Amino acid sequence: MPQTIWREIWILVGIAITSLVLGLITGRLFLIAAIGFGLYIFFTLRHLQRLRHWLRNRQQAEIPDAGGLWGDVFDEIRQLMKQTENREDRLNDMLTRFQSAAAAMPDAMVILSQESDIEWANPSAGRLFGIRYPRDAGTRLFNLLRDPDFVQYLQHGDYSELLEIDSPENSEIKLSIQVTPFGSLQKLVIGRDVTRLARLEQMRRHFVANVSHELRTPLTVLGGFVETLGHMDQIRMEDLKKYLATMQEQAVRMQRLVDDLLMLSKLETAAPRTHDETVDVTALLAGLKEQAELLSGEQHHVITVETDKSLRLLGSREELLSAFSNLVNNAVRYTPAGGRIALAWKAAPDGSACFSVSDTGEGIALEHVPHLTERFYRVDTARSRASGGTGLGLSIVKHVLLRHDARLDIESEPGVGSTFTCVFPTARARRVDHPVSGIA
Ligand SMILES: Nc1ncnc2c1ncn2[C@@H]1O[C@H](COP(=O)(O)OP(=O)(O)OP(=O)(O)O)[C@@H](O)[C@H]1O
Ligand SMILES: [Mg+2]
């Protein structure tokens, strides 16, 4: 038995003995015993009353002090209180951390009651769902999110598949909705912004449709010829050569398309280069000029080159050559016979290094310029296709330049001509000991 119980027993025994002795002396045993035990009961009741008072006014009053058994009881209660306070502190701490984590979440989170009333929502729910907490607490969710698909989804109760809806705050934002039931028929609704993914998915679909469309024409032509030839019993050598030439043309076109697609995919997926070469662009220009003259053939374009021989470029020779030759090919293909094409490689006054191709060709209307680097974009689809274009050339240029921290500036005027300039940052320009500039 604890020591304090023994103390109480000794007090009671003490009261009994004292009452007996005093009662025997005074002859009023009963009265004295009643006074002694009465006092004991009075103090006990007083402690009980203090305890009751404290329990009722726990927030304001201090826990009472006492000795003996009551002191023990009060100490025990004090310890219990401390433990509860610590637990509460820890819980509050966790709650604060949870709330700050939920507030920092980019996803919208809403907790719904069994009746689909809003119990809690994080700040992102305001941006994506238009639900402000605590303003909308207690409001039925369907009053704020009225999308019929969403209402049906939430009421149906099968949440195995995610739902996609437009954000009621901004129809440009696409949301993926996930509902998780928990507790006593409550629900956690999570809305994730999937605009970027939806856009990528759309781009992918367009891309596949475009590639199929581009491949279909040459394949149809090839298939048609093969079928015709198969049905022929006799054929003149001259006709056969003509057919075969057309078939080869279509095969070359498909080959070009596949090569360009592979090049694009390589540029997009390749890791950033860790080692750049110092590319002698002046040397590249000599090859590019020859290539342009070959492509021009009978059209006799006037092709000039102006180059800063001491200016070199840090980058990938192969990628740069592919980009530059795309620009030069375009200039030749979209400039009428006899037109002028000027290739230039020089430093700009701000130190950046510029490769430019100017032509006196047909030019491009302003509204097309922002779209030129999109895959398969052509100003005149039929003409570009007829001349063997895949519509991927400038996309390749854009990706090569991106990998070289460079940009493509396009200046063009219909009927006057165009200038395509690749602007490389100063950090990629290098000087070597050579004559400063010259006309090649
Ligand atoms: N120098 C230019 N002058 C006029 N129009 C141009 C010029 N360069 C490009 N264009 C226009 O921009 C479009 C896109 O060019 P891009 O190089 O991406 O494709 P393409 O030349 O049609 O095909 P590819 O280069 O893949 O063979 C072209 O179809 C053409 O209409
Ligand atoms: Mg091109």
TrEMBL record:
Domain Histidine kinase per the UniProt entry, residue ranges: 210-428
Main location: membrane
Keywords: ATP-binding, Cell membrane, Coiled coil, Kinase, Membrane, Nucleotide-binding, Phosphate transport, Phosphoprotein, Transferase, Transmembrane, Transmembrane helix, Transport, Two-component regulatory system
Keyword Cytoplasm: no
Segments forming a coiled coil: 74-101
InterPro entries linked to this entry: BphY/WalK/GraS-like, HATPase_C_sf, HATPase_dom, His_kinase_dom, HisK_dim/P_dom, HisK_dim/P_sf, PAS, PAS-like_dom_sf
EC id: 2.7.13.3
GO molecular function: ATP binding; phosphoprotein phosphatase activity; phosphorelay sensor kinase activity
Pfam family, one: PAS_8
A GO biological-process term: phosphate ion transport
Transmembrane region(s): 31-48
Localization per record: Cell membrane
Reaction(s) the record says it catalyses: ATP + protein L-histidine = ADP + protein N-phospho-L-histidine
Top-level enzyme category: transferase
Xref: SMART domains: HATPase_c, HisKA, PAS
UniProt keyword Transport present: yes
One GO cellular component term: plasma membrane
Function summary: Member of the two-component regulatory system PhoR/PhoB involved in the phosphate regulon genes expression. PhoR may function as a membrane-associated protein kinase that phosphorylates PhoB in response to environmental signals.
Name recorded for this polypeptide: Phosphate regulon sensor protein PhoR
The organism of origin for this protein: Sulfuricaulis limicola
Record lineage: Bacteria, Pseudomonadati, Pseudomonadota, Gammaproteobacteria, Acidiferrobacterales
